[in-house]
Amino acid sequence: MASPALRTANRIDQDCMDYGVIPKSVFGRQHSNLTDGRLLDSMVSDTCSTNSMKSTLSVLNPIRSKDVRNRSFLEGSLLGHGALLGAEELDRCFPERSIGIYIVTWNMQGKKELPHNLDDLLLPPDADFAQDIYIIGVQEGCPDRREWEIRLQETLGPYYVMLDGVAHGVLYLSVFIRRDLIWFCSEVEHTTVTTRIVSQIKTKGAVGIGFTFFGTSFIFITSHFTSGKTKVYERILDYNKIIEALTLPKILPDTNPYRSNSSDVTTRFDEVFWFGDFNFRLNMDRIGVDQILKQDLSSDMSRLLQYDQLSKEMKDGSVFQGFKEAPIQFPPTYKFDVGCDIYDTTTKQRTPSYTDRVLYKSRHKGDIKVVKYTCCSTIKSSDHRPVLGVFQVKVRPGRDNIPLGAGQFDRELYLEGIRRRITRELQRKQALKNQKNSTVCAIS
Fold first, then answer.
1. CA atoms 43, 48, 49, 53: torsion sign
2. Which has the closest alpha carbon to 210: 255, 179, 250?
3. What pLDDT band is residue 13 in, cutting at 50, 70 and 90?
4. How do beta strands 189-194 and 171-178 pair?
5. How far is CA 247 from CA 86, 121, 269, 444, in A?
């Protein structure tokens, strides 16, 4: 799923070694790479056809001089011509007024060593297009948070920039967005909550990041609830503390204050995504769960989910009020022996459970559509499997009176990630060349 208008902008330079050249037919236009000198020679006057300019020089829409002179867009009108966050600009970028959001939650078990390749986590092979925004939440993160963020940037490549990255102890939350979309974002706000009695121990709690994109407000929350099969009540307390203590938004205007509740952060945003290691278990013994897993379940996990603690508590209204979850069609994501597909073989023999979840909530019915909800079974460096969700989310026009982010992103991270990406490709090509040379020597 990708916006048609933005697909055309997703061109790749021929000298970028990581990619192949995309055929011109993909864009439906002919393009030329004219230098400044050739461009001046080819133009007879500045009154040449804007349609000609649009079709031969750029996939971007031409800007008229009178529009540049016009300053009325600063009044914050939704419909004003040239308004940065208005309906005209939104329709130009997203004709269907929907964006793609990719969410990952993963308990890394505090492992120092990161997976060699994160492509399957962020760019699964069955996906034809990358999404507009990537949100990655980590619990029990690796000791070197910066290295983790660099690896994410390296994997997503030059098309994406990190809008914000926040940590609360070993809870990490990173937001990456297409670099051509950062201008439509407000300033980004974040806050954290500790649910441990001893606040210095930052292993359990939550991290929240909020911002407005065009006229739609978003909040993304990742959290780690109390562990233990019998501690359902404690997990409900964690949830209640988080929704009360996450103090967002701060200076960003509420897009619909009449529907907000000062004691529940999830009511103060249009679109809410909450994901993490919630630690809810299956109310069944290990033997019973193993017997069900041995059967040919295909994608029907209902025989397991009827014992799921979280599903029961949500149905009873004691936790995550108003939230939804896509149908679960994958096996339990906890607890595995590291490096393999075998559930816990230690003396504790923990019951396999769906501890890792992605939930969503919207002020407007039908705004969020689920495209995919699954786990990443190829990453086995932790006792948890990562869970990912892909969503199509409706976006509305906004006013230009919000505090804009003005294109801010983590520049140093971007440069280091791209440097790593180029270095990796050079090393790969050198390895292939060495392999070829050694083969020739062996034959001779």
1. positive
2. 250
3. very low
4. unpaired
5. 28, 31, 12, 71
Neighbours of 178 (CB within 10 A): 22
Residue 322, amino acid = G
133 Cβ partners below 8 Å, 6+ apart? Answer: 99, 100, 101, 102, 175, 176, 177, 178, 181, 213
Q: Under a CB-based contact definition with an 8 Å cutoff, are residues 322 and 361 in contact?
A: yes
pLDDT digits (tens, 9 = 90+) for 65-90: 776 676 554 444 555 566 788 888 89
pTM attached to this predicted model = 0.85
| Residues 6+ positions from 418 with CB-CB distance below 8 Å | 153, 154, 157, 158
Q: At how many degrees (to 10) do helices 309-316 and 232-245 cross?
A: 60
Residue 282 CA to residue 338 CA, distance in Å, equals: 21
- Residues found in the chain: 444
- What are the structure tokens assigned to 372, written together? 């995919």
CA–CA gap between residue 285 and residue 275 (Å, rounded): 26
Structural contact between residues 318 and 297, judged by C-beta atoms closer than 8 angstroms = no
Extract the tokens encoding 81.
């011509």
Residue indicated by tokens 């290691």: 277
- Count Cβ atoms within 10 A of the Cβ of residue 37 and give its class: 0-12 exposed, 13-18 middle, 19 or more buried: exposed
Our CA angle for 409, 242, 311, nearest 5°, is 105
